[in-house]
Each structure stands twice: as structure tokens, then as C-alpha cells.
Design a protein that fits this description.
This protein has about 425 residues and is mostly helical. It contains 17 helices and two strands. InterPro entries: MFS, MFS_trans_sf, MFS_Transporters. It is a multi-pass membrane protein.
Length: about 425
């Protein structure tokens, strides 16, 4: 309905509306799979938990190493073919989970799936950037994040229902459903109309010069922002790892409150992510956003710490944790806006795939280091934990704000329309 589209801020563009369905379907399948994958591998396949952890880590490493190659392919063939290819590869990988017999077969299919997942992220971001104008990009990316949260919730409920009906068969249904979601998403993407940049003019490139990752690495501002993003993403691990651990180990709140806090976070992301992008279209608009993320996370850190000091006054503890989650969510929303804007806006169009694949490495780096840092702080130095995390995030955000000041759009390249 038009009123709903206006509320969430989805650009009134046919490609954007089709992409909304892609995002929902993709998220539903992922939301079905994530809660049951480890249980399936241990309870049904019979692998031990340690082997599963090692296997998933190796697969994630393989996906990270292959992402830059996908960036080069995006620049050569365009984002749409690469998104379709990644969706089809993911479908094959996760369908392959049904045929796992031992650790070796698990590693093979897990690597295929992770390569598709890691390569698909910069490809999807480049595809979104090619659908709409520069002024609409941030809103569309924010909408995608909002709608994916809805999809994750629906997927989680679907997997719970399937496992309740028949636990053993339910695992197979969930994995098959996830593979099917990738196939449907690929079919929808194939019908999206996008634009592609023309090749870089020879005069602009310079005699004998070839564009590639050397050009990306020579862009010091962009590389620095990518590195700093590993610090900005502290809000992600602090939420997913830190909050449950903190509530259970350092407050008197019941464990069930964690679910309520996460539900509150999800609802706020769905309702507010797009609306908080107002006034942000270019990298030069992001410094205030990064500052707000810093301030909000500082409030959240103080709230979490205060909840551990409130003793047995349950009502007061709950209020403090809710306030902390509200502030934490604000930091998450603003941090995401800054990340999307600088990563896409500062990427020259003819090298966008390579630029975004480099920026994606910041996600992988944080996923490797972030959980370890959060767990060590909360278990070994609880009195300082949240203040250290706030300092880490603040350093990343404020340095990113400084680098983004006055950042201009890269040299424009002429766009050529393509048919779906």
C-alpha cells in the first residue's frame, strides 16, 4: 500500500519494489536456517561441536579470501549477474547440507555456501546502488535492513514450527526451504533493471594504466574508513554477544529478559532505520551521524554498567536495561547509516565492486576479533568492559567522522542503461 511505502521510505522505483521482495525472501530463508544449522550438524549428522566450529571458521576464512575476486567480477560483468550467481551458488551449498556424511563433506559444502555468502554481500550492495539515484541509495539500503529484520523473524518462527511438527524431518525442510528461497530470489533479481557504468575513458585512466585493486589500496581515505569500520561495528558484537552474557552474569534480571530486549531492538530497527537516514545522502553528510552513534553508545554503556550496580531492585534493573537497549539501538542505526553511505558514495562507479569487497573485509575482521574482545572484557574485567567498548566504538566513529568531512563524490562516470 502507498501509505505504508511512504512511511518506511521505500523509493517509488519498480526495481526497488522488486528488490524489497528479494530482501524479504532471502531473509526468511536465512532466518529459518541460522537457528538450526549447528544443531542439525551435531544432532542429525553426528559431528562433534568442536569440529563444527573449526569447519565453520575455515569456511568463513575461505569466503573472506574469495570476496575480492568477486569484486573484480562485479566490475567486469556488473552486479546483477554476480548477485544471481551468488544466490544460485548459495542454493547449491545449503542444499548440499542435506547430503553431508562426514567432516570432509561438511567442509566442502560449507566452503561453497560461505563463498556465496561473502561474495554476495558486496554484490548486493553494488546492485542496490545501481537501482536508484545517489540521493535514494541510503534510504533503500536502510529499507533493506528493516525488511530483512522482519524476514529474519518470520524465518525463525517458520523453523520453530517445522521442528515442532517433526524434529528430524523439520531440519531437512528448513535447509531445503532456505535453498528454495535463494532460487526464488535469483529469479526475481534476473528481472530487475539496473544501470552499468561505461568503461573508464582511456584519457582518465592514463597511458598504460590498468584499474584494479592497486587503485583501491591507493585511496587512503577509503582504506582508512574500511579499517575504522572494524571498530564502528563494535555495536554489533556488543549486542549479539555482550548483552546476553552481561544480563545473565552481571545483573539480577531473569534470563528471559534478553529475548524481550532483542525483540525491542528488532522492532525499533524495522520502524526507525529508514527514518533516521533523513538528511544523509553523501559521505560528507555522515560526520553528525557518527557523532550521534558515539553519544548513543556511551549512554548504552553507562546503562548496562548501572544495571549491574543496581543490586536486587529488579524493576530498576529492568528499566536501566531497557534504556540501555534503546540507546544501543540508536547507536546501531546511526552506525549502519554511516557505514552504508561512505562505503558506496566514496567508491568510484567503475571500481565499485572492488571497493565494496575491500570494505566487506572489515566485517570479516570484526567477526574474527570482536567476539573474543567482548567475551574477554565481560568475563575478565566487568567493571571496565562497557567503557572500553564505548571507547573502541567512539574512536572508530569519531575518526570516521573526521575522515568523512568534506569528502566529495568520486569522479562521475557515465551510466548506460541495460535491460533486465
Amino acid at each position: 500500500m502507498r501509505w505504508a511505502r511512504n512511511w518506511i521510505g521505500l523509493p517509488d522505483v519498480p526495481a526497488a519494489r522488486r528488490w524489497a521482495w528479494v530482501a524479504v525472501i532471502d531473509a526468511v530463508g536465512t532466518g529459518m536456517r541460522i537457528p538450526v544449522t549447528v544443531i542439525y550438524l551435531t544432532a542429525v549428522v553426528g559431528l562433534d561441536a568442536a569440529s563444527v566450529g573449526i569447519g565453520l571458521g575455515l569456511a568463513a576464512l575461505a569466503g573472506t579470501l574469495c570476496a575480492p575476486a568477486c569484486g573484480a567480477l562485479i566490475d567486469r560483468y556488473g552486479p546483477k549477474p554476480m548477485v544471481v550467481a551468488c544466490f544460485l551458488t548459495a542454493a547449491a551449498g545449503y542444499l548440499g547440507y542435506l547430503a553431508i556424511q562426514d567432516w570432509v563433506s561438511f567442509i566442502v559444502v560449507a566452503i561453497v555456501a560461505e563463498i556465496a555468502e561473502h561474495s554476495g554481500r558486496p554484490a548486493k550492495q553494488a546492485l542496490v546502488a545501481s537501482m536508484v539515484t545517489a540521493e535514494q541509495r541510503v534510504k533503500l539500503m536502510a529499507f533493506q535492513r528493516s525488511i530483512r529484520n522482519v524476514g529474519f523473524g518470520l524465518g525463525g518462527l517458520t523453523s520453530a514450527a517445522l521442528l515442532t511438527l517433526d524434529a528430524h524431518s523439520g531440519y531437512y525442510a528448513v535447509l531445503a526451504g532456505d535453498a528454495l528461497s535463494f532460487l526464488v530470489a535469483a529469479a526475481l533479481v534476473s528481472r530487475i533493471a539496473v544501470t552499468r557504468p561505461s568503461p573508464r575513458p582511456a584519457a582518465q585512466a592514463g597511458p598504460g594504466r590498468r584499474d584494479g585493486f592497486r587503485d583501491v589500496l591507493a585511496d587512503r581515505r577509503y582504506v582508512a574508513l574500511a579499517v575504522l569500520n572494524t571498530l564502528v561495528m563494535t555495536h554489533v558484537t556488543a549486542l549479539n554477544v555482550g548483552v546476553p552474557l552481561w544480563v545473565n552474569q552481571h545483573t539480577t534480571a531473569p534470563p528471559g529478559l534478553v529475548g524481550v530486549l532483542f525483540a525491542l531492538n528488532t522492532a525499533l530497527v524495522v520502524l526507525l532505520q529508514v527514518r533516521l537516514t533523513k538528511g544523509v545522502a553523501r559521505a560528507a553528510d555522515t560526520p553528525p551521524v557518527y557523532v550521534r552513534a558515539t553519544a548513543a553508545f556511551a549512554v548504552a554503556a553507562a546503562g548496562y554498567w548501572a544495571a549491574s550496580m543496581a543490586g536486587g531492585t529488579l524493576a530498576f534493573v529492568v528499566v536501566l536495561l531497557v534504556v540501555a537497549m534503546l540507546a544501543h539501538t540508536a547507536a546501531e542505526l546511526y552506525g549502519a547509516v554511516g557505514e552504508w553511505t561512505v562505503s558506496v558514495d566514496l567508491a568510484p562507479e567503475h571500481l565499485r565492486g572492488r571497493y565494496l569487497s575491500l570494505f566487506h573485509v572489515s566485517f570479516s575482521a570484526h567477526q574474527a576479533v570482536g567476539p573474543v574482545l567482548v567475551i574477554l572484557l565481560i568475563t575478565k574485567a566487568p567493571d571496565l568492559a562497557w567503557f572500553v567498548l564505548a571507547a573502541v566504538l567512539g574512536a572508530g566513529c569519531l575518526a570516521s567522522a573526521w575522515l568523512a568531512r568534506g569528502a566529495g563524490e568520486p569522479a562521475a562516470t557515465k551510466e548506460v542503461s541495460t535491460t533486465p
